[in-house]
C-alpha cells in the first residue's frame, strides 16, 4: 500500500474514510482528475478539511504500487484512494480483474431486494461500503449472489461506486448523483449507443416493469439475471458496454 506517499507493506489504518475506486490498465489510472475532484469535494464537505491532491504524484504512486506488487499490465486492476478523518491518505489495490478495460461482465447474478438504509447516502464513505458488504453477505446467506437495497419508502438505494440503472424498452432510468464517475460514464455510454436516458428516483415497483437491471462499477457493467426470481434480459446493456471499448 501507499500511506501518506510512502510505499509500505499493507497495514490496517484506523478510522472512517471517504474513497474512490479507480480503474487502472497497464498501471495507468482512468479518469483520475474526476476521481480527485470528487474525493476532494467529499473530504471538504464531511471533514471540513481541504486537501490538495497532486494528480501527477497520485498517478506516479499508483504506478509504483502496482509495479512493486508485480501485477500484470495486461488486465484491469482496481485501486482505492482513501482519505481518512485523521488526515491520512492511502492507496491500495484489489484483486486483478480477468478483463482488460471497462467491459460487459460475463457473470449475471441472481439478486434479492433487502430493506435497509445506507449511512450518508450519496457520499462515497467507509460506512456506505460496510452497509453494502452487509447487504451482500445477507443476500448470499439466503442463496443469492447480490442485493438490491430498498429503503423504508421503497426507493432503490446504492453505493455511489455501484450505481444501479433500469432499462425499459429503449430508455435507461438512473438516479441523479454528481458524486459518481461510474454513474456519469454509464449515462454517457448509453447516449452514445443511441438510447434515451431519464434521470429520476427509482422505486421497487419499477423492477416489475423493467426489461433489464444493470449495475456499473470500476470493472464495467453487470446485468442481473433475476431479482427475487423475476428474469431480466441484457441486450441493451451489452450494446452500451460496446461503447466503453471505442
Describe the overall structure.
The chain has helices spanning 32-47, 55-68, 126-141, 181-192, 206-209, 235-244; strands at 2-3, 6-7, 17-25, 28-29, 76-84, 89-93, 103-104, 110-115, 146-150, 156-157, 164-168, 171-174, 196-199, 212-217, 220-223, 226-227, 230-231. It has two domains: 2-93, Aminotransferase class 4, branched-chain amino acid transferase, N-terminal domain (D-amino Acid Aminotransferase, Chain A, domain 1), CATH 3.30.470.10; 103-244, D-amino Acid Aminotransferase, Chain A, domain 2. The chain has a six-stranded antiparallel sheet. A six-stranded mixed sheet has the order 7-15-14-11-12-13. The protein has a five-stranded mixed sheet with strand order 10-9-8-16-17, with helices on one face. With 246 residues, it is an alpha+beta fold. The protein starts with a strand and ends with a helix. A hairpin with a 5-residue loop joins strand 9 and strand 10 (156-157).
Amino acid at each position: 500500500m501507499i500511506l501518506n506517499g510512502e510505499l509500505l507493506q499493507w497495514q490496517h489504518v484506523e478510522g472512517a474514510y471517504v474513497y474512490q475506486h479507480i480503474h487502472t490498465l497497464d498501471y495507468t489510472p482512468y479518469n483520475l482528475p474526476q476521481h480527485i475532484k470528487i474525493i476532494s469535494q467529499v473530504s471538504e464537505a464531511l471533514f471540513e478539511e481541504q486537501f490538495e491532491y497532486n494528480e501527477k504524484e497520485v498517478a506516479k504512486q499508483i504506478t509504483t504500487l502496482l509495479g512493486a506488487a508485480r501485477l500484470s499490465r495486461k488486465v484491469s486492476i482496481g485501486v482505492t484512494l482513501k482519505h481518512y478523518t485523521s488526515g491520512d491518505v492511502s492507496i491500495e489495490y484489489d484483486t486483478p480483474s480477468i478483463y482488460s478495460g471497462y467491459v460487459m461482465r460475463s457473470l449475471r447474478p441472481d439478486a434479492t431486494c433487502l430493506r435497509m438504509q445506507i449511512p450518508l447516502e450519496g457520499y462515497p464513505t467507509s460506512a456506505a461500503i460496510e452497509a453494502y458488504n452487509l447487504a451482500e453477505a445477507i443476500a448470499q446467506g439466503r442463496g443469492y449472489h447480490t442485493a438490491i437495497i430498498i429503503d423504508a419508502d421503497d426507493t432503490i438505494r446504492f453505493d455511489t461506486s455501484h450505481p444501479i440503472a433500469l432499462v425499459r424498452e429503449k430508455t435507461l432510468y438512473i438516479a441523479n448523483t454528481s458524486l459518481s464517475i461510474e454513474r456519469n460514464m454509464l449515462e454517457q455510454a448509453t447516449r452514445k449507443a443511441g438510447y434515451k436516458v431519464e434521470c429520476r428516483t427509482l422505486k421497487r415497483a419499477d423492477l416489475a416493469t423493467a426489461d433489464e437491471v444493470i449495475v456499473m462499477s470500476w470493472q464495467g457493467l453487470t446485468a442481473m439475471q433475476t431479482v427475487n426470481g423475476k428474469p431480466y434480459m441484457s441486450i441493451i446493456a451489452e450494446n452500451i458496454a460496446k461503447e466503453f471499448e471505442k
